[in-house]
UniProtKB/TrEMBL annotation:
It comes from Chitinophaga skermanii. GO terms for cellular component: membrane. This is Pimeloyl-ACP methyl ester carboxylesterase. Residues 24-251 form the AB hydrolase-1 domain. InterPro entries: AB_hydrolase_1, AB_hydrolase_fold, AB_hydrolase_sf, Epox_hydrolase-like. GO terms for molecular function: catalytic activity. The lineage of its organism: Bacteria, Pseudomonadati, Bacteroidota, Chitinophagia, Chitinophagales. It holds the Pfam family Abhydrolase_6.
Amino acid sequence: MHKTFQYADKKTGSYYVTGSGPVVVLLHGFGEDGSAWEHQTNYLAKTSKIIVPSLPGTHGSDITHPLTIESMADFVHALLVAEGIQKVVMIGHSMGGYITLAFAEKYGDMLQGFGLFHSSGLADTEEKKEARRKSIRLIQDYGHDTFIRQAIPGMFANRYRTEHPEKVDNYLHRAMHIPGATLIAYYEAMILRPDRTAVLKQAQVPVLFIIGEEDTAVTMDAIMPQTSYPTTASIHILEKVGHMGLWEEAEESNYILEQFIRYCNHS
């Protein structure tokens, strides 16, 4: 069921909710909307209540200015308040992981556990910031369609792109519906976000790490040291997978998430 709520000076937020049981929030990443989680939503709804927000600027959710990682964490909090929910397990893919960490920093008492799915607690390096600025200029000069066709396929591992070109095209088609202004706002928010590895070190709840062996956006070298920070961590490496394990290895991802959610609700 698609629902809406009011937040931040009468802005409208949109989200999808299905299933019943312990509450799980799935946060999508850059270049996505909530439909990126479709494989997980259908599976996890058998045992949990699944909430999938469309983050500001996507699929019916008004964008706020300025848009920051922290304001998007506030957006998720406002949604949960509107739903009357007090405890959740939260999983964030890529940029959604940055938002999850910001949420944990500010509203940690609401979390039974959280997960970084191809994501990191580190701030951008100067090199990464410049790469994002270059992408912003590409969107401004040539349009977001050109940017998406150039940048998005590289999020998938080579094997998946070769074996499932139709699925990559499907993902691209969905990304085309995200306004260029939203993509730019997301980039600017990611550039400005601080290091939040301290949130991992201070976590009092289980933390899930799902890592793509061939992920070039959030590399194994960057994320593996962070897996030692939480007191309780569940660590999974998806072999021959890039940045899109939720699609590239949907079945394995579903099983990992299901087990983590069950653990968080019984630990």
